């Protein structure tokens, strides 16, 4: 299933725009685009919302017919347990996380211990925990960690764009992670020369216009046959002013949806 994630609305939810969208606003925009899946990913206000506010948002998602997934960072058992409770509230069947959190960097042995503690409850409730590929942890180490736990409820959220900063080729990451992939983050990327030709900027691009060989990823994963959701997000730099930035973000989302719908 094609979905949108919080990073597809990064600037539209930012305090840098005059009227940032709230969570329910984003649900409504998602549904208006004909999309039935939304991943609430790294959305800081989520854990500060009251139970009543969370219940209201979950009810609105159900009213709109939206399937919800969740995303966070970290593998501490208490943190993963908190997101499992949120998953139950939102009827979510997948939680994406990362091994490292901004203020918490366990060793692989520590991470394995935390995951063993947490994963039983995920298994019992039928929720999948998907750990994302990114530059701070080599994909071979991530695959080894997931294999070490050996649970059908633990897999990988594949985002090869992230791993380029760790000097990994996307094609290698795709091949390595394909058997364990349970979720896909969809965004394109490209390099551009800095002004004066001194260095490069590694940033986002409209899907299909950058360096990401997305057909290769789909061929390796076969998301339709395996029931793996594809979540659209962007690496869109600030475009100089709020109106231009928001308009560009909306246009990139339209491009991504058209691309995915025509190539599925």
Index terms:
alpha/beta; two-stranded antiparallel sheet; Xyl_isomerase-like_TIM-brl
Structure at a glance:
With 264 residues, the protein is α/β, with parallel strands linked by helices. The protein contains ten helices and ten strands.
Give the secondary structure arrangement, pairings included:
Elements: E1 2-5, H1 23-32, E2 37-41, H2 51-64, E3 67-71, H3 77-90, E4 94-97, H4 108-125, E5 128-132, H5 139-149, E6 154-158, H6 160-163, H7 170-177, E7 181-186, E8 188-193, E9 200-205, H8 214-221, H9 223-226, E10 229-232, H10 242-263
Parallel strand pairs: 1-2, 1-10, 2-3, 3-4, 4-5, 5-6, 6-7, 7-10
Antiparallel strand pairs: 8-9
Helix pairs in contact: 1-2, 3-4, 4-5
How much helicity do the residues have? 40-55%
Strand portion: 15-25%
- The gyration radius over C-alpha positions equals 18 Å
The number of helical runs is: 10
**Topology, number of strands:** 10
CATH topology: TIM Barrel
Through-space gap between termini:
10 Å
Low confidence ranges: none
Name the average pLDDT.
Answer: 97
Query: CATH homologous superfamily name?
Result: Divalent-metal-dependent TIM barrel enzymes
Strand arrangement, major sheet: 1-2-3-4-5-6-7-10
Question: Mind explaining what this structure looks like?
Answer:
InterPro entries: IolE/XylAMocC-like, Xyl_isomerase-like_sf, Xyl_isomerase-like_TIM-brl. Residues 80-254 form the Xylose isomerase-like TIM barrel domain. With 264 residues, this protein is α/β, with parallel strands linked by helices. It contains 10 helices and 10 strands. The chain has one domain: Divalent-metal-dependent TIM barrel enzymes (TIM Barrel), CATH 3.20.20.150. The protein has helices spanning 23-32, 51-64, 77-90, 108-125, 139-149, 160-163, 170-177, 214-221, 223-226, 242-263; strands at residues 2-5, 37-41, 67-71, 94-97, 128-132, 154-158, 181-186, 188-193, 200-205, 229-232. The strands form 2 sheets. Strands 1-2-3-4-5-6-7-10 form an 8-stranded parallel beta barrel, surrounded by 6 helices. A two-stranded antiparallel ribbon has the order 8-9. A hairpin with a 6-residue loop joins strand 8 (188-193) and strand 9. Helix 1 (23-32) runs parallel beside helix 2 and helix 4 (108-125) crosses helix 5 (139-149). The protein is globular. The mean pLDDT is 97.
């Amino acid at each position: 299933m094609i979905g949108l994630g919080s990073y597809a609305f990064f600037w539209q939810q930012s305090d840098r725009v005059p009227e940032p969208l709230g969570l329910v606003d984003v649900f409504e925009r998602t549904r208006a685009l004909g999309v039935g899946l939304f991943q609430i990913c790294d959305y800081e206000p989520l854990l500060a919302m009251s139970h009543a506010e969370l219940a209201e948002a979950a009810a609105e998602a159900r009213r709109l017919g939206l399937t919800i997934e969740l995303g966070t960072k970290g593998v501490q058992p208490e943190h993963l347990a908190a997101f499992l409770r949120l998953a139950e509230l939102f009827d979510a069947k997948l939680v994406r996380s990362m091994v490292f959190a901004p203020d918490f960097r366990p060793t692989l042995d520590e991470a394995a211990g935390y995951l063993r503690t947490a994963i039983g409850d995920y298994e019992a409730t039928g929720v999948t925990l998907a750990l994302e590929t990114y530059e701070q942890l080599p994909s071979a180490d991530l695959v080894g960690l997931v294999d070490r736990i050996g649970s059908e409820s633990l897999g990988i959220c594949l985002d090869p764009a992230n791993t380029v900063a760790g000097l990994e080729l996307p094609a290698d990451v795709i091949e390595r992670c394909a058997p364990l992939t349970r979720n896909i983050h969809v965004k394109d990327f490209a390099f551009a020369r800095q002004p004066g030709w001194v260095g490069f900027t590694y940033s986002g691009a409209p899907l299909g216009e950058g360096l990401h060989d997305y057909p290769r990823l789909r061929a390796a994963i076969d998301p339709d046959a395996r029931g793996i959701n594809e979540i659209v997000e962007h690496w869109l730099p600030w475009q100089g002013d709020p109106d231009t930035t928001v308009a560009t973000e909306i246009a990139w989302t339209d491009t991504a949806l058209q691309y995915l719908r025509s190539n599925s």
